[in-house]
Amino acid sequence: MVKGKRIGPLLLTAALLFAGCGEEAVHTSAQAENAEVSAEPTDENAEESAEPTGEKTEEGAESADEAGGARSVETAENADAQAVAESGFMAPLEMDETLRTELTEELLEENEMDTSVVESALVTKGCSFTLPEAFSESEDIQGMYVTKRYPIDASTIYYVALGKDVALQLMTEETFKAQAEENFEKAYGEEIEVAIDSFERIKIDGCPAFRILCHYQVGDIEMTQLEYAINADKSYVITYSQTEDYDRMEEYEASAETIRLEF
Questions:
Q1: How far is the C-alpha of 116 from the C-alpha of 101, rounded, in Å?
Q2: 150: which of 9, 45, 91, 245 is 20 to 30 A away, CA to CA?
Q3: What is the pLDDT of residue 108?
Q4: What is the pLDDT of residue 105?
Q5: 125 with 233: CB under 8 angstroms?
Q6: Cα distances (Å, whole numbers) of residue 54 to 30, 84, 153
Q7: Secondary structure of residue 31 in the 3-state scheme
Q8: What's the CA gap between 257 and 65, in Å, rounded?
Q9: For residue 80, how many other CB atoms are within 10 A of its CB?
Q10: What is the C-alpha separation between 19 and 260, in angstroms, rounded?
Q11: Cα–Cα distance, 123 to 9 (Å, whole number)
């Protein structure tokens, strides 16, 4: 169906709003009804995630050369820090990891945000949660769980695990909204306004996390998404999505209560 083809990719784009660029889905597995979803990140994802970063940096250097000379290392670092301060997100540019962490911690302290993600020495093996009974693993898209009536019932649950990003803790309601709308415009060539219904900073198993409820209109289809992002030694994002035709929010809330980190 045209509706299903349209909705599917859109859900994936929204599910990766926290990632910025270089995101990679991590293998998940689910049994039959009411199964528990569990995934373990791999080092391979971190390596793959770094590739787009290098390409972007190289392109930036080439542009600078054409303009009359490449930036010095010191100038580049200052520009990176400025980008962080203005956007609320850590710019995906090449930077010493120690410097990146120090800049992030300073910004968190200045804005009186949670710095525990910088200080924590926890090591997680993955994240798990219980699927609602109507959902099972998609045969086509890794990390996605759908109903038997998909795409007629376009309700989905999408899980992704990403590399560590302490700067995720700098995210605000405003920067989330701006990044979401930018991603949609790049993906679909049209402006889509994202309305934030609630934006909460919470804790899951002692780690800082976000709970974000939002909705947006695509053509004549209204989408609602409930997103959980856990900021630990890895970033774990779970996105529950539905159209206006199917209200599964009660099931989604029950599933979200079972989200746990695996140590």
A1: 12
A2: 45
A3: 81
A4: 77
A5: no
A6: 35, 18, 40
A7: coil
A8: 52
A9: 20
A10: 20
A11: 32
Torsion of CA 49, 111, 124, 27, to 10 degrees: -40
Contact criterion met (CB below 8 Å) for 169 and 207 = no
Would you say the pTM of this structure is higher than 0.70?
no
Residue with tokens 């290098």: 54
Tell me what pLDDT residue 219 has.
83
Is 111 within 8 Å of 97 (Cβ atoms)? no
Burial per residue of 82-118, b for 16 or more beta-carbon CB atoms within 10 angstroms, e otherwise: eebeeebbbbbbbbeeeebbebbbebbeeeebebbbb
Return left, alpha or beta for 38; rule: phi > 0 is left, psi -120 to 50 is alpha, else beta. beta
Q: How is 140-177 classified by DSSP, letter by letter?
A: SSTTEEEETTTTTS--EEEEEEE---GGGGG--HHHHH
Q: What CA–CA distance (Å, rounded) separates 206 from 47?
A: 27
Q: Which tokens sit at 152?
A: 């007629």
Which residues touch 219 (CB under 8 Å, ≥6 apart)?
6
Are 143 and 16 contacting, i.e. CB atoms less than 8 angstroms apart?
Answer: no
CB distance 130 to 251 below 8 Å:
no
- Give residue for tokens 């090449």: 94
